[in-house]
TrEMBL record:
Belongs to the peptidase S10 family. Keywords: Carboxypeptidase, Glycoprotein, Hydrolase, Protease, Signal. This is Carboxypeptidase. GO terms for biological process: proteolysis. GO terms for cellular component: fungal-type vacuole. The lineage of its organism: Eukaryota, Fungi, Dikarya, Ascomycota, Pezizomycotina. Pfam families: Peptidase_S10. It comes from the Eukaryota. Its EC number is 3.4.16.-.
Length: 489
């Protein structure tokens, strides 16, 4: 989910000459825990990082006749065994929660899930979309999610960068750094995980996410591929695929779709704005695109500020002022981030018993769903200007499978913009991909899909920005088919 409606439009590879397999994993003194089950693991190949992990089990405290300290299974019905913990990098601590597959945890794929923003917590993915449980609207309890993605895979939910969710820094002067800086932390996290749990190396690994994940995931995956290319086989991360839902990849390519969604009937429920408003938006499109291109060519604050101000006022604010949900054009915007459940999740995660069950560090701040501060920090380093199309193309050329799925009722990162991105992606499979899109769309229970080689594209009819929330059955079906390398039906 994008927290900022239109942020200002304004990598080096760490190498080591020593094989990680030759360096033993060591345990460090615990940072601040008296719990004997908590371990902090370090590895000489990543001297600036360590991994603190605490196991949790699919057994409720009532089964153990101990109600004084609710277990994660009590707090989150449907939770499987797994770990919670932190990736530590100096004063920075990145929170994660990991759940084993409900099916075959020793054989099913491993998936890292990232929410977007930038600045939004992956705990919303866990507790609203695809985790083992869903928070009730009262905010005081949760219920089992029968369509969780852990039905088909073991899944990490990671809060990043620092300042997001339960991730924090003990040094207030730490900067967030942007997408490229975060890629090294993601790489270190997976390296430390595989050293702690080498049996995981035999499982296919995918990175999945939504929204600003269209920035994060192509860059993170490309960094992993680059590091794999200079690592011994036994030290490589077995990256097999990426999945990106309703992503933002290219602001220039996707901007014009802010007209199409509310001003045409492309969604099947439009147009949503008056003719006069839409005529003014259409007239503003060429100038907006010209200003955005100028910002990319000359990323000066004055140029980019003018671009942002004009495009926001002329293309975004007409829809925002309509009162409709930014993430689902079929509904009104109701409450924080347009969904009442967002406040419920916040209240739930601010409860002491819930924080304890999820293994949250006592030093972590009160939970906030989306951090405006992180969004502003990303603006300062022009992170929003990154066009990730070339990173996606490089992944496809390197053999990494890519699935793009898009709910057709989203406005903020909509299917029209996504199809313009992938209909113009510069990779060797583009001619066939466009042929499939124009002449050979396939139907499935959720909508339409087509693919060429390693690239699959799926529309999910009637879903908004958060596809697993709006269409949980279809989302799980789509996810499972992708992991099993099967057609959508």
């Amino acid at each position: 989910m994008r927290n900022l409606i239109w942020p200002t439009i304004v990598a080096s590879l760490a190498t080591t000459g020593t094989s990680a397999s030759q360096i033993p994993l060591t345990e460090e003194p615990l940072r601040s825990s008296s719990d004997p089950s908590v371990r902090t693991l370090a590895h000489a190949s990543h001297p600036n990082h360590s991994l603190t992990i605490k196991p949790h089990h699919a057994i409720s405290s009532t089964d153990n006749s101990d109600n004084s300290n609710p277990s994660l299974a009590d707090i989150c019905p449907g939770a499987t065994s797994g770990y919670t913990g932190y990736l530590n990098s100096g004063s920075k601590h990145f929170y994660f929660a990991y759940f084993e597959s409900r099916a075959r945890p020793k054989h099913d794929p491993l998936v890292l899930w990232l929410n977007g923003g930038p600045g939004c917590s992956s705990m919303s993915g866990l507790l609203m979309e695809l985790g083992p449980c869903t928070v009730n609207e009262s905010g005081d309890s949760a219920r089992e999610n029968p369509n969780s993605w852990i039905n088909a895979a073991s899944v990490f939910f990671l809060d990043q960068p620092i300042g997001v969710g339960f991730s924090y820094s003990s040094n207030t002067s730490d900067v967030h750094g942007g997408t490229f800086a975060a890629s090294e932390d993601i790489y270190a996290f997976m390296r430390l995980w595989y050293q702690a749990f080498p049996e995981s190396k035999s499982l296919p690994f995918s990175i999945a996410g939504e929204s600003y994940g269209g920035h994060y995931i192509p860059v993170f995956a490309s960094h992993i591929k680059a590091m794999n290319s200079i690592s011994l086989p036994e030290d490589q991360i077995p990256l097999e695929s990426v999945l990106i839902g309703n992503g933002i990849f290219s602001d220039v390519k996707q901007a014009s779709s802010y007209y199409d969604i509310p001003c045409t009937n492309v969604t099947g429920i439009g147009p949503l704005l008056d003719d006069g408003v839409c005529e003014k938006m259409a007239a503003a499109l060429p100038r907006c695109e010209l200003l955005m291109e100028a910002c990319h060519a000359y990323p000066d604050p004055l140029i980019c500020g003018a671009s942002s101000d004009f495009c926001s006022e002329e293309l975004e604010m007409p829809y925002v002022r309509s009162g409709r949900n930014y993430y689902d054009v079929s509904t009104p915007c109701d409450g924080y981030l347009c969904y009442p459940i967002m406040i419920a999740i916040t209240n739930f995660l601010r409860t002491d018993a819930v924080r304890t069950a999820f293994g949250v560090d006592e030093k972590a701040p009160k939970f906030v769903e989306c951090s405006d501060k992180v969004g502003r920090e990303f603006q300062k380093v022009n992170d929003f200007l990154i066009d990730t199309r070339s990173y996606v193309a490089d992944l496809l050329h390197s053999g990494v499978r890519v699935m793009i799925y898009v709910g057709t009722y989203d406005w903020i990162c909509n299917f029209v913009g996504n199809e313009r991105v992938f209909g113009s992606l510069e990779w060797k499979g583009l001619p066939d991909f466009r042929y499939q899109q124009e002449n050979n769309k396939q139907t499935w229970s959720g909508g339409l899909w087509w693919e060429s080689g390693p690239l699959r594209y799926a529309r999910v009819n009637g879903a908004g920005h958060m596809v697993p929330w709006d269409k949980p059955v279809e989302a799980l079906k789509m996810f499972t088919a992708w992991l099993e390398k099967k057609d959508l039906e």
